[in-house]
Amino acid sequence: MGRTVAAMSGGVDSSVAAAMLANEARTGDEVIGVWMRLHADGGEGYEQSRSCCSPDAADDARRVAQIAGIPFFILNLEREFGARVIDAFADGYLDGSTPNPCQACNQYIKFDELLRRGLAAYGADAVATGHYARVEDRDGRRVLLRAADADKDQTYFLWVLDQEQLRHTRFPLGELTKPEVRQIATELGLPTAAKPESQEICFVPSGDYRALLAERRGYAGEPGPIVDADGTEVGTHTGYAHYTVGQRHGLGVALGEAVYVREVRPASNTVVIGRREEVAASAFTVDGHRFVAGEPPAERFSASVRIRHRAPDVPAEITLLGDDRFAVETATPVWAPAPGQAAVLYDGDVCLGGGRIARAA
Amino acid sequence: MSVYLDHAATTPLRREVLDAMQPYLTEYFGNPSSIHGPGRRARLGLDEARETVARIVGAKPREIVFTSGGTEADNLALKGAAWAASADGRRVVTSSVEHKAVMHSCAVLERFGFEVTYLPVDRYGRVDPADVASAIRGHTTVVSVMYANNEVGTIQPIREIGAICRQRKVLFHVDAVQAAGFLPLDVDTLQVDLLSLGAHKLYGPKGVGALFVRQGTALLTQLSGGSQERQRRAGTENVAGIVGFAKALELAQDDLVAREAENSRLARLRDQLVAGLTALAGVTLTGHPTDRLPNSASFLVEGVEGGDLVAALDLEGIAASTGSACTTGSAEPSHVLLAMGIESEAAHGSLRLTAGLGTTEDDVRRTIEVMGSVLGRMRAGMGERAEVASA
Hints:
Chain A is 25% helix and 30% strand. Chain A has helices at residues 12-24, 56-68, 78-94, 101-120, 163-167, 178-187, 210-217, 276-279; strands at residues 3-7, 30-37, 72-76, 126-128, 133-138, 141-146, 169-170, 224-227, 233-237, 259-265, 270-275, 280-291, 300-306, 314-322, 325-335, 342-347, 350-357.
């Protein structure tokens, strides 16, 4: 396998991925652990110096690398991550859409910046991550497949990868289930074996992104109307960018039944709500499409579509519209397609590609 | 096979140093403050070490305060002297290329209302003594300028600055951590009042150093406790470390002829490194071309991240540095390079190679060779970026 860069976050998945590769390495094979510093982390001392501070995650990754017996480097990608992921995340909300930071991180950081620098600087031929997904060679092409553990499958965040990227990508956990991964971590004595799952967006540990909008983009939020489907004002919101399609809580609207955000309109600073069935849709448009194979299967084809991580797939008819756009018609309505989120297409276990859900015209 | 060119980060322990330390880790374990025999035996080692260090810097034994290293010595000098003199004034003058131990001590002083002037440097990283003279005003109490820079090796005009400080009756602190072992350390010739030293840069152990404190200089202790080190630094002394430090300093400084011979040997290796690397496209020397430490070669490498280059060299068995082991993992480019007028983007491509006792011509040849091939690969990889990103 030559020289492989193992991206190590300090979590159990990437720890096991790196350790497994190190254990499988044969003569001449090399595994290099890399922890990416992606966002600033204050020091613990009084001086709060930003240099020389080592967050716990980096400590964990380093311990795992030591146990696996592989070299370990810290790669500072704060600038790249700040621009391509954090700022894009803030801009997504300001644009009235729901950003997809994990996908952006894969697309621009892990499988671009890290991959490129791993190849160029470290002389590696591949990057390995702890993602739950599989890559196979079929007829000279790389095929992206769902993970064996359907519950953990992360292809929803990986559909953006192209042939060139996949040729240099390894997913050592693709055939494993999460309990198996924890088991291996325990057997190898990795300090990350019992680490809890991280659910939040890594740069918004509190889960509240409003402070980030203010800090990165100076968006304080201006109160505006919450309206129903008829345009009747039913309440007041704190600023359109604080809301996301499908959101139920924090609306402060009592209409006697559950209501959800149906649409966010930046231009008029308006949040539109609707009843559950009003928020579902069976037709929507997708832009910025990419196909793993490099080209779409046909002008018009059937696929199953997923519009949210871990949401169920729904059978759909896909029609190409030109300009990297396609139309999706689902067999049954899907819950709250949110502009900015990905619509990912599958043929069975094969991830075909996808695009970004567009705002309704 | 492996090449170690990061002696400015740290050095291996010399055999003689280890031998000198060994009894104090085992047999002579006593606490030097104890009244009994084992205590007195440890005290003997401590006193002899203090005499040795004092002799080498031309000081009295009582003027030597042992610390946990260069960083603590810098903290004690800056904060200790500035606070103790704060009734006379709250102004401190330093340079913009100091080690973080000085820089961050100054930042803390600023937080407590002190006014700190950071002197500019020329493109080689040198302070102009005239700038020191004009920066000293009423209420200036301490001037701190390093002897030789840890990142680019440039040597500062310490004597000239010392003379100015003496004339203006201002305390002069010199961080000599990187210079010790190469340059003369006589505190009267240099006209310094406070001088920081560390052991592990000169083949001594980590975790020990000293501050020379000219007699009559008031210091506010930074570690309160027992009455060790004449109440300037509390805590049971690191006796074995101190003995090792004194031995290492003695080996490095005492024999002037041997030191000069080693300095010229190192300077030859350094010059070969500089010639070999600057012959590669896009590699330029940083720091002063001649007025620099004999073992230190530092560069800007165009189009690469210094951290990537150091990792790449490491994978080929060559230990190098971007400039300072203390800022690894930081996105901020070196404050030293920025102060020298180097653009932020260019400063990211910094590389420091520092030779030492064990460095050979073969090491230098191999390093030049590997640099050539690694740089070739890294720059070719930039073409690959376009492929990956646009595909």
